[in-house]
Design a protein that fits this description.
It is a single chain. The protein is α/β, with parallel strands linked by helices. The protein has 2 domains: about 230 residues, Rossmann fold (3-Layer(aba) Sandwich); about 120 residues, Rossmann fold. About 40% of the residues lie in helices and about 20% in strands. It has 13 helices and 14 strands. A 7-stranded mixed beta sheet has the order 3-2-4-5-7-6-12, with helices on both faces. Strands 9-11-10-13-14 form a 5-stranded mixed beta sheet, sandwiched between helices. Helix 12 links the parallel strand 13 and strand 14. The longest helix has 21 residues. It is globular.
Length: about 350
């Protein structure tokens, strides 16, 4: 199999098309602009539809309409644009519609900077928009993984009838790496007998809505969603563990930060400190069972979370470990990127405090 050199944003767009996406609706915002640019010419070639909407709000509602017809649909944006899409994402949840949303995060709050960040973790992993809804959130750290996860994202969206987000920082969208396209056969799409494809005779009309005026009816629906979420929490958590067995300290990081943390872990091992990397791939559901098992090893003295934020995923780490190990945090924010040397310094501090 031949390797090809791809830029992150363009790779994600091509991977979506190869995964069966046939409707893209978006609006330009740095640092994800190459996605709609690529889709503008490539999607018509693939027999699909590309629309540059008049706004992010319009784009997410166009996704709603296409998904309601049974089409694999997606949108992409960066942090402020995702904020504008929140209401539409909640409507997708409430209507049980599958869709894929890509967020190439940038520094905030507000318009902030155009540099990479990871400060949208809470926004993605708690409740998208209003209500008690969830999205499955996938976080690639390398372009090969991003290509593979795009196919998984559409499959998971269809399987569970819900939105799935690819959450990446802007650096992943802008970097270039060699990628091998998977030759695995595409999974057949499940039957979408719920789709609104037009009147098919008496009793065959499908009406899709997120409106349930009766409180008891809405509670029944919400309870059904919660049962689905518990199933996803059991079946779908994903993670990568590197040199975690017998480690003195675990570094917990995702996305680009995980790559930097891995470099720091290798430097620490050269110093004689056994450092391992725990990388969540699903941010929701968070792989808490796997983290808890690795952190419970007698050798582990602390779990250091590293993020490009003021501290968000660290709360899930602390919830998973419920005080069983020290859980220090190191983060850079606003678009600043942690350096491997800085992480090494933080590990020395963490081990010193854990020994005190």
């Amino acid at each position: 199999m031949n390797k090809e050199l791809w830029k992150g944003n363009e790779l994600i767009a091509e991977a979506a098309i190869r995964a069966g996406c046939r409707a893209y609706f978006g609006y330009p915002i740095t640092p994800q602009n190459e996605i709609p640019e690529y889709m503008s010419w490539r999607m018509p070639e693939a027999g699909g539809v590309f629309v540059q909407a008049e706004s992010e709000i319009a784009a997410i509602n166009m996704v709603y309409g296409a998904s309601a017809m049974g089409v694999r649909a997606m949108t992409s944006s960066s942090s402020p644009g995702i904020s504008l899409k929140q209401e539409g994402i909640s409507y997708l949840v409430g209507a049980e519609l599958p869709a894929v949303i890509v967020n190439m995060m940038r520094g905030g709050p507000g318009l902030g900077s155009i540099q990479p960040s990871q400060s949208d973790y809470f926004q993605a992993t708690r409740s998208p928009g209003h209500g008690d809804g969830h999205m499955i959130v996938l976080a690639p750290c390398r372009l090969q993984e991003a290509a593979d996860l795009m196919a998984d994202a559409f499959d998971l969206a269809d399987q569970y009838r819900m939105p799935v987000m690819i959450l990446a920082d802007g650096m992943i969208g802008q970097m270039m790496e060699a990628v091998t396209w998977s030759e695995r056969p595409a999974k057949p799409m499940p039957p979408k007998d719920w789709a609104a494809t037009g009147r098919e005779g008496p009793g065959k009309t499908h009406f899709i809505t997120s409106l349930r005026l009766g409180a008891s009816d809405n509670e029944l629906f919400n309870n059904r969603l919660q049962q689905r979420y518990r199933l996803i929490e059991r079946e779908e958590p994903r993670h990568e563990a590197v040199d975690c067995e017998g480690a003195d300290i675990l570094l917990c990081a995702f996305g680009t930060t995980a790559r930097i943390a891995l470099s720091a872990a290798r430097k620490l091992r050269e110093e004689g400190i056994k450092a391992g990397l725990f990388r969540p791939i699903t941010l929701w559901p968070f792989p808490e069972v796997a983290l808890r098992a690795l952190a419970s090893q007698p050798s582990v003295r602390a779990v250091l979370t590293v993020e490009m934020s003021a501290g968000q995923m660290v709360q899930d780490v602390r919830l998973a470990l419920v005080g069983s190990r020290p859980t220090p945090f190191f983060g850079r924010t606003g678009g600043m990127i942690p350096e491997a040397g800085q992480i090494v310094e933080q590990v020395h501090l963490a081990l010193k405090e854990a020994q005190a």
